[in-house]
Recover the amino acids of this structure.
């Protein structure tokens, strides 16, 4: 099974900051990686798929990169609405697996 | 509008069974790969199962042999039959639509539409 590890687990930042979240896979997953945003008490919302393709309607301040085992999610200029928990997920093979999540907090 | 609505959650005793439903609108369930994902209280996301458009199913090891995913095409609804429930199955259960591609003889599907979830609590 493929293990997904995110870092950091918690990130404190301010509105306007540029932030980066890292996701590592225990083996190569090519570019079969998605990023989701989840707000408290809500369902996850797809942000990025295939490592770097922005889902329709997602603001362009979100971007993804990477391939193989190392991936990043970058928010170029944090907005108040971006404070949430972010998860990466590999869909290279079953069982699908998620990272443990990165909680983005207001500094 | 594309929408998924889960129902069927509740408080259930260990060892009992429960069936969750996920009613879809705006698309045809049988034409898509559909997944169940759960989230225990205060924890991260945990993939549970998938049913392909062709009917193939896969399960997480933690639920294999106890949970069964199925669908009713006439009702455009996805189901998760959960048997022999344990305390560790307590979670919010989400259904999600798969989108993606068939490449090099394999399917690669991420989850692009999610329901709001239904809560299952397993406790005596």
């Amino acid at each position: 099974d493929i293990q997904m590890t995110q870092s950091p687990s918690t990130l404190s930042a301010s509105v306007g900051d540029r932030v980066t979240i890292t996701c590592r896979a225990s083996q190569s997953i090519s570019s079969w990686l998605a990023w989701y945003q989840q707000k408290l008490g809500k369902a996850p919302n797809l942000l990025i798929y295939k490592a770097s393709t922005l889902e329709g309607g997602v603001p362009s301040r979100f971007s993804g990169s990477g391939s193989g085992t190392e991936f990043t999610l970058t928010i170029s200029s944090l907005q108040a609405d971006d404070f949430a928990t972010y998860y990466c997920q590999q869909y290279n093979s079953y069982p699908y697996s998620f990272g443990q999540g990165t909680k983005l907090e207001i500094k | 509008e594309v929408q998924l609505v889960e129902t069927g959650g509740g408080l259930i005793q260990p060892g009992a069974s429960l069936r969750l439903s996920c009613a879809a609108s705006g698309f045809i369930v049988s034409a898509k790969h559909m997944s169940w994902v759960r989230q225990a209280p205060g924890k991260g996301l945990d993939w549970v199962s998938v049913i392909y458009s062709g009917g193939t199913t896969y399960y997480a090891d933690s639920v294999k042999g106890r949970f069964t995913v199925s669908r009713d095409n006439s009702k455009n609804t996805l189901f998760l039959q959960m048997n022999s429930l344990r305390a560790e199955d307590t979670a919010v259960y989400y259904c999600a639509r798969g989108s993606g591609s068939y490449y090099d003889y394999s399917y690669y599907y991420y989850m692009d539409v999610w329901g709001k979830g239904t809560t299952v609590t397993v406790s005596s």
Summary: The radius of gyration of chain A is 13 Å.
